[in-house]
Amino acid sequence: MPTIYPCFVLSLPLPDPSHPASISARKEMGQDVLQSISKRHANFRLCDVSSYTTELLEVQAGDPTFHVLLIPGNPGVVSFYKDFVESLYEFLGGTVSVTAVGHVSHTKKDWEHGRLFSLQEQINHKMDFIKQELQNNGIPIVLVGHSIGSYICIELFKRAPEKVRYCIGLYPFLALNQESKAQAIIGKIAASPTLSLVICFIVALLGMLPICALRLIVKQSFGKSWSATAVDSVCSHLVKYHTIRNILFMAMTEFKKLSEAPDWAFMRAKCDKIAFLFGVDDHWGPLQMHEEICKEVPEIALSIEREGHTHAFGCTEAGSLWVAQYVAGLIKNQIPRSSQ
User: Fold this and answer.
1) Cβ-based neighbours of 49, under 8 Å, separated by 6 or more
2) Which of 156, 170, 172, 191 is 20 to 30 A from 70, comparing alpha carbons?
3) Structural domain boundaries of the chain?
4) What CATH class has 23-179+263-339?
C-alpha cells in the first residue's frame, strides 16, 4: 500500500490474494472486485441508546485492537452498509471490531411514534452511543462517516478527541453545493411541510404494494447494479412514512447547518488524523470541496476515487468492496502497527 501524502490522489492496488481471509478475484460490471470465500457475516441488533431504539450492524473481533465506528449518511439505514462492514472487517484481518450505528427513527419500525429528529439530535445520539457502549472499554475508535456522516464524525471527534484515533470521511457532505440543482430541489421539498407530506404519503402508498411488485419497482428505478441487500433495505425501510419524514426533516436541518463554512480551524489542528475520499461526479461531495480543503488545510490526506463508483457506494457489491479496501489501507498506513 503506497504512502499517503497530503492532497495526494491515491491509486490503490488490489490486496494480496494470499490474504488470510481467503479472498479471490472475480470480474463484475467490468471492474476487478474481491469476494471472500468464507465471509464473516455482520450481526443486526437493536440497542437502547438514551431511550431511543437504535439499529446496529456489527462484526465483533475477539480481542479488538481498536473499534471502527461507521456513521451512515441520510438515510441512516445500516443495512445499506452490510457488504461494506463485512468486507472492512476482513481487510483488517479480523482483529478490529466494526459497528454501523443507524440514525434514530430511520428504522424498520416506528419505535419513536412519529417524532422527528434533527441533525444535531442525531449527532447527540451518536455521542451517547459512544459514551454508553465504547467510552470505558479502553479501546480506541476510528470514525468512518459517509456523506453527512462525515460531518457528524468531525463533530464527534471534537467532543471525544482523547478517544478517537482517526477520522475518515467518505464522499463527504460538508457544505452546501450552490451549483447543484439536485440539492436545490431537495432543499425546497425538505423545507416545505406540504411537499414533504405529499412525498411521504406517496412513498407510504408504495409500501403497501405486495413485496414482489415493490422489489420490481425498486430494481427498475435504481438499476440492476444494486445489490440484493440494497434492494431489500429500500423495501424494508425507505417505504415507511416515519422514515421518509425523518429523512426529509434531517435534510432540512442539514441544509441550514451546512450553509455555514466547515470548521477549518479544527481540521488544521487535527490534520494528521483526518482523511477524506471524494468521488469524481458527486454533487454532495464535489471536487470543488476537495480543492477548498487543499487550500485551507494543505496537510490533510485527500483522495479521489476514479473507479466509477457512486456516492451511494454501499448499494453495490463492487463499490462496497472498493471503499472497504481503501479504508482498510488508510487505517493500516495511518495507525502504527504497534497499536493494531
Assistant:
1) 104, 125, 128, 129, 132, 133
2) 191
3) 23-179+263-339
4) alpha beta
